Each structure stands twice: as C-alpha cells, then as structure tokens.
C-alpha cells in the first residue's frame, strides 16, 4: 500500500469526520483505531486516518503516540501527514496541539507547519487568526463551557503560542486570497523569523483549496477537516490521486438491535437528546450516583434490556454547564470525565453482548472509551448522516456505528443516524 495522505486524529469522532471529508473528496479512505497491528488487513486506499485518543492526555504521551502513528504512516509511503485537531481547537494551555505539531514537524525536518481549524461547512472560520463558531468568536460560543477544555480565547495565534516551543505567526486572508505561492512565501518568511507554526485564515472552501496546495509542498500540517478537504483537492489536482466514487458496497444490511449513547454535554447534543425523547425511550444517567460508586451503568443496562426488543433506546449522561460544573467541583474534572466514560463503555459492552449491532455514540472522548472497550480495529466509511458525521462499518465484524462529534448534527440526529444504518 502506498499512501498519498497519512492522518493522525486526536480523537475518534474527529477521525471519522476527516475520513468522511476525504471520502467525499474522492480519496479511498479507511479509519483505524490506534496504530494498526502489522497483520491487520486493510483495503487498498489513498488515505489512512489513524484515530488516537490523545486530545486530553498529557502532552508527552500525546507526542509519543502521534510519533508512533507518523512512523507507521510514513513507512507506508504517506507523502504528507495531517495532524487532525478539532475545528474548535479544543485544547488547554497545557494541551497537545502545539507539542505534537512541533514534534512531527521536527521529525519531518520542516522549519514551519501550516495550522488551521477552519471548516466552513460546519461554520468554523478563521479571520486574522480569530476562530469564529457560526456568527460568534470562539470564546463567546458554547465552547467556553466545554467540560474538559473550556475555550476562553478566540485568538489562535495566542492560544497555540502558549502551547508551543517555537513562535507562532499568522497567514492572513489577504495573503490567502493571493494564492498558494503567496502562502508558501509567507511560510518561508515566518520560518526565517524563527516561527515554527502559522495560523492560516480561511473563510470559504476556496481558501482551503489554496491552503491545501501550499501545505502539500511540505511534509506536515495541522488542522481540521477543512484542511483535509484542501489537501484532498490538491492531491487530485496534482494527479497524485485518481478520484474514486464513495464506497457504496459496505456489505449489506445488518438489522437487529439498535442503541444510542451520549456523553457529550455540547449544546447541540443536549438539543438532540431532548428531540430524541419523541422518537425512543431515553434514560438519563445520574453522574452523582455513578461517582458515588453505585452501579448506575448496570441499572441503565437493565433499563435498556427491558425496552430494546421494541426498538432503539438512548442513554445519556449529558448535562448543562451548571450541572457539569457542580459534578466537577465535587469529584474533579478528570475523575468525573473518566468515570462517566468508563460507565458508557461498560454499557456499550453490555449492549453488544445482548445483540446490539447498530450503535450511535455522541462525544469524542465518549466514543473513544466505547470503541476501545469494544476492541474495534478499523472502519470503512459509509454515507454521511450530517456534515462531519458518516456511518461507519467495522472491518472485522457486522456492525454499524456512528461517532458524532459533540457539536455536529441536526436536531433529529439520533433518528437520522439509525435510518442510515439498516
Ligand atoms: N453530567 C456530566 N458531568 C460531568 N462530566 C460529564 C457529564 N457527562 C459527560 N461528562 C464528560 O464530559 C466529557 C465530554 O467529552 P466528549 O468528548 O465525549 O464530548 P464533546 O467534547 O462534546 O465531543 P467532541 O470532543 O466530539 O466535540 C467526557 O469526559 C464525559 O465523560
Ligand atoms: O473538527 C471537529 O469539530 C470534529 O471533527 C472534532 O474533532 C470534534 O471532536
């Protein structure tokens, strides 16, 4: 297998978002969970997206795992590596976007890396280094209340500089508008100035095409699915990939039991859970009981088993910012997050043991915990449920999954997803 593009995603939902974007742009793509074992049979593809669960772990560990993934991808011929981060730049000042970008860039022998989380299809745009989520700056968006990494600064040059060893510069929209050569010249100038990364503005998909072409002249870049789109278009335009139609034959219907799990506390997910109440039974997990050591996961599973023969069910730990803050104040942010993720993973395992073969999970960390517990090695990419969320089919067994990034999907996401998972 010779890869045109190797991708390292810092969470599993983000990886499926990127795999979806690359597939739609004509790249044959597979999503693996972690660095694939040597004996894992993979189809012939143009791009591999290695999913890591590295967004919220200590920086040294994130660097080590990302390096391992980079080595695997490079050994399979990947000419360019994209480090896929969240389109809302989810990270803390001790976070990992800077350290991983620095490490991959240095290993690749590059002086500077282009960085942009812009993804206009989902209303993430960057102007003068400031990230906008829809019509508001990042720090005024619901991301300011994220349970793990509250985003309180919209200026990404500043955010990335706080996490990076090398300095961070800006490629502004006026430069992007002049085209790929102007972007490359600006990267060179910033590198001469000692910068190791440059936040690039992008407001429209055409800006991403320019950035993708410029990024492709170097060995690594960092960004969200929008930059993936730009890189895919540049690879096709350069004749390095012959565009393929999406993989329509994923193996036929599976049928059987279906369930949804939500651990995301994003505004979008909270609205989707409320809407799902009209379509299926919904059980809210009680984080306080769970964190007090009571068998809340077992109780939720028993609840599900009484109903699942009649149709899909949804179980959610999700809560609004005030409730999340109260739980975190009492039990600690990481301890609360990990305990709830572990409960979700246990419920997922129980569901699959009892015949669930169609599973929808909301939230990146939550999806990571669930997929790890189920031991799924890789996914092929099916139809798109909503921007950034495809249907996935496991490569080693008959199972449909959808891993939804917290902020993605329309109001009826859970029902929409199950409709596309026959
Ligand atoms: N009621 C709750 N109180 C405190 N923490 C919670 C609660 N419910 C879920 N959590 C934790 O909040 C975190 C949510 O992160 P997760 O990545 O799953 O969702 P997200 O950030 O919205 O999704 P994405 O990363 O895809 O945007 C998890 O660690 C989860 O365990
Ligand atoms: O880029 C995004 O917003 C998503 O793919 C994601 O990474 C959310 O976890």
Write structural notes for this entry:
By secondary structure, the chain is of the alpha/beta class. The chain has two domains: 5-237, Rossmann fold; 257-419, Four-carbon acid sugar kinase, nucleotide binding domain (Molybdenum Cofactor Biosythetic Enzyme, Chain A, 3-Layer(aba) Sandwich), CATH 3.40.980. Helices cover 40% and strands 21% of the residues. The chain has 15 helices and 18 strands. The protein has helices spanning 12-24, 59-75, 97-108, 156-163, 173-177, 180-192, 205-215, 225-237, 267-276, 287-291, 296-307, 321-331, 333-353, 364-374, 413-419; strands at residues 5-9, 29-33, 47-51, 80-84, 113-116, 124-127, 130-133, 136-137, 167-171, 195-200, 220-223, 257-262, 282-284, 313-316, 356-362, 378-386, 389-394, 400-404. Strands 9-10-5-11-4-1-3-2-16-17-18-15-12-14-13 form a 15-stranded mixed beta sheet, sandwiched between helices. A three-stranded antiparallel beta sheet has the order 6-7-8, with no helix packed on it. Strand 17 and strand 18 form a beta hairpin. Helix 2 packs parallel to helix 3, helix 12 crosses helix 13 and helix 13 crosses helix 14 (364-374). The structure holds adenosine-5'-triphosphate and the ligand O=C(O)[C@@H](O)C(=O)CO. Residues 11, 13, 146-148, 263-266, 287, 317-319, 323-324, 327-328, 336-337, 340-341, 363-366, 405-407 line the site of adenosine-5'-triphosphate (ATP). The site of the ligand O=C(O)[C@@H](O)C(=O)CO has 12 residues, from helix 1.
